[in-house]
Specification:
Elements: H1 5-25, H2 30-51, H3 59-71, H4 78-96, H5 104-124
Length: 135
Amino acid sequence: MSMSKEYIAGLWERAVKTIQDAGMSLSFSPDNAANRAYYAAFYAVSALFASEERFFKKHTATRAAVHKELVNTGRWNESLGDDYDKLLGLREVADYGVLQHTSPEEAREAIEQADRVLHAVHEARPDLFPIDTSS
């Protein structure tokens, strides 16, 4: 299943926009910021995998692939895999926690973790995944 460059670019654009959304919502909704931080990382990783003709239907499958295809092969260091895991866990709290919520500090950390994931994807293929470093 070959994916078009437009599809891959669309995932990347969504990742970049979504991490910006996370930052904008940090002050008024840490839960939303954590959700957006996770999705920014998810879209970025999905774009990277799509560029390599790899596709996953479930978030858990994407997480497993991060470890199997990126961390365990040495393409990413273990701390990036930990960042992705923490983002996924915090998104579950942010989305489904009824009595538990994301703290502002956790949300701030989530944005930093997502930023590291986006930069790792950028470094893997800067030609496909540009980052505006002027901000």
